[in-house]
Amino acid sequence: MSKARLSGAEATMLATLYCRALDARSPRPILGDTLAVAALREIEFDPADTGVRRGDHVTIALRGRFLDSWTRDFLAGHPEATVLHLGCGLDSRVHRVDPGPGVRWYDVDRPAVIDLKRGLYPARDGYELVAASVTDPAWLEEVPADRPVLVVAEGLTMYLEEDEGRALFRRVVDRFPSGRFVFDGFSGLGVRMQWANRIVRKAGATLHWGIDGCAELETIAPGLRCTASESVFDDPGYTELSRGYRTLAAVARRLPAVRRMSVYYRLDF
């Protein structure tokens, strides 16, 4: 069993893994990530330290399912592509999506995370683990730039400094001939409300980059187009949940500032 020695933003991935495992064990799974259950058995940590409370797992499962669907959509039209899964944490997305043989997939995260992850999931053809900070320019130079690229970043952008995040996006746009970013982002209000986020508080993490709409993102690099931005509260999956979550989503949809606190973005170039 591996001892998880993570802190700050890295520690939040234990909460995310725990939530995916709770979902997989539930009577009606949303994401159904059974590999998360197996991985959790190999990690020594106290669930009480994650800040996860009863019911929290459903929102994490919905987020994973939503970004999985956008990932599959891109790969359906680009069977020979490169995927950069940034800030991958302990996510088993490559196994859930199960890309075809023409896809090169890179999971990128800090060395402590990748060291922990190596023993948790099976190897597969076309899949590599990259032990580096996503904001370090060096690792990207080692990735072949001969194919369209899909960048997947779940629960990452809000932990980056804005200038770091914008520079990272520019490097990808400059390096690849075409591609797409799919990710979730918090608004400025969402970042300012981080004191209310138990998982962030428990991990001792800090949120930085607040994104207030497509117009901001399109200034990052020429040719970058925001082709979709959807509030997490508009996810149709909320209709599958308990009355409490359905009510929460309904109230959030009526309050524009709250509705845009957490958004799924799709950027093409």
UniProtKB/TrEMBL annotation:
<keyword id="KW-0489">Methyltransferase</keyword>
<dbReference type="GO" id="GO:0032259">
    <property type="term" value="P:methylation"/>
</dbReference>
<dbReference type="InterPro" id="IPR029063">
    <property type="entry name" value="SAM-dependent_MTases_sf"/>
</dbReference>
<dbReference type="Pfam" id="PF04072">
    <property type="entry name" value="LCM"/>
</dbReference>
<dbReference type="InterPro" id="IPR007213">
    <property type="entry name" value="Ppm1/Ppm2/Tcmp"/>
</dbReference>
<dbReference type="GO" id="GO:0008168">
    <property type="term" value="F:methyltransferase activity"/>
</dbReference>
<keyword id="KW-0808">Transferase</keyword>
<dbReference type="InterPro" id="IPR016874">
    <property type="entry name" value="TcmP-like"/>
</dbReference>
<protein>
    <submittedName>
        <fullName>O-methyltransferase involved in polyketide biosynthesis</fullName>
    </submittedName>
</protein>
